[in-house]
Amino acid sequence: MHDISLFCSLSVLFILVYIKHRELSSPQAKHPPGPKPVFLIGNVLQIPTASPQFTFTKWLEEYGDMVYLRVFQQPMLVLNSLESARDLLHNRSSIYSDRPNFILLRLMGWENASPQVRYGPQFRRHRRFIQQTFNQSAIEELRPIQEKQISYLLQDIVGSPAQIDDHLRRFSAGIIMKVTYGADVKSINDPLVQIAHHAELLTIESGTPSATLVDYIPALKYIPVWAPLAGFKRNAALVKEAVDTMFNVPYEMVKSQMTSGIASSCMTSRLIAACSPAGVTFLSPEDEEDIKAVAGTMHSASDDTTRCVLSTFILAMVLHPQVFERAQAEMDRVIDLDRLPNLEDRDSLPYLECVLKEACRWNVPIPLGMPHRLVDDDIYRDYYIPKGTTVMANIHAILQNCSQPQLFRPERYMEDSHLPDPRDVIFGFGRRRCPGRHFANRNVWLVAASLVCATIIGKAEDDAGNEITPEAKFLDGFVRHPASFPYSIKFRPEKISALNNWNAALDV
């Protein structure tokens, strides 16, 4: 009896392998080129677990701008050029806008978060919710919040210039917390900031290669939590608790304030009022979950990437003092001594625009973007791309397609007008393009312009007075933050009166 069962099992396995072999060798299945996969496991051993974008970029020379891979039996397509990314993710967005079925993220409680939600009615509803607050015309109403938060940031720098990392964290958290929940964040120790930071850290720490295997071997989700390979399940339970807290606590705060009639206007309060004109007690569970997910996701996504770009900008200014000096000279020609820059000055500061473009190109905040999933078979350049393929745009490779890509050279954007603007590319493609990009772009510009105008950024000195040149080193992770580095930031004495004037005008 045992022999019969074994024979049947082996027969079924042989038939499945044969069918798969016929499928892959058929004329229709001329996939894009890529490294040869290993039987059953595919290309798993050829893809680094840390910073795979560099390996994908090297494969560009060998296989072209489309690299086809298999992770176990899951097909994956890496797009290494702007042309292929736009052709597929933008021009064919109707079939390339889905998300892969991330089992691990579902276990962690992120399944309803806007960047992860599958393409369909819920995605479109989330998108509509976000657009109401962050479309190009709506963000003008957020300008007073931006200006106040910039003022707080500059005051923080005046008081403790050596703690710029903490100040940027408070700024990025404070501005999005105010927009989404109406909360005034005074320090990075604010309970709401700590709750969100805890959830983000746990999510990052739990996304190990062994944990994410469940996304490629779905049967692992059925193993009991006490089993040896179930560590990812135990960690996911901790993350889910933290994520639920991050979504629920600020949301319930706004609901309580609305019930008491003391809520300020914010994204969450407006969405609650729109979904339930009769009052918060009549809000449906579905509406509540969608509002929580949209608000929570906007906070976590905006906070992390904004800090990454601003930290990269400061590192670049420390390493390239001639760039900072040129940007400041341009600023001083445009901005009078008794004021600070505002958005109306932007068109008059073209070199600063080039510096920010180069900062986003030099260190792409999210090098591989967010993965897409193909919902139907497709043919592109005579290549067959099967339904269910995970598609990733290698934004790092796309923005390396320029002369001397390793150098930090803002002038490249003055010399070549055909170069793509990195601040457009880093936000993704098609219907999955970040809906908060206009607001994020303004935040980064306002901070960078204020720092160039009001501070001196340079190298730190050791005890002997020698300058310390930091290493351009970046951390592995979904968001590629600069590693901690020494720096010097000093507030320009001649700009103190300008800050005081601005604070008085803003009533800060």
Can you describe this structure in just a few lines?
The chain is α+β, with helices and mostly antiparallel strands and 508 residues long. It has 2 domains: 1-27; 31-506, Cytochrome p450, CATH 1.10.630.10. The protein is 53% helix and 6% strand.
What is the CATH top level name of the largest domain? Mainly Alpha
CATH superfamily of the largest domain: Cytochrome P450
Question: What string, H for helix and E for strand, traces the elements in order?
Answer: HHEEHHHHHHHHHHHHHEEEEHHHHEEH
Largest sheet: 4 strands, mixed
**Which strand order spans the largest sheet, edge to edge or round the barrel?**
1-2-6-3
- Are there runs of 5+ residues with pLDDT below 50, and where? 1-27
Task: Look at the helices and sheets and give the structural class.
Answer: alpha+beta
Taken as a percent bin, the fraction of beta residues is 5-15%
Q: Tell me the distance between the termini.
A: 82 Å
Radius of gyration: 25 Å
CATH topology of the largest domain: Cytochrome p450
What's the architecture of the largest domain, going by CATH?
Answer: Orthogonal Bundle
Q: Could you tell me the number of beta strands?
A: 8
Would you tell me the overall average pLDDT?
Answer: 85
The helical percent reads: 40-55%
Shape: globular
Figure out the total of helices: 20
Number of domains: 2
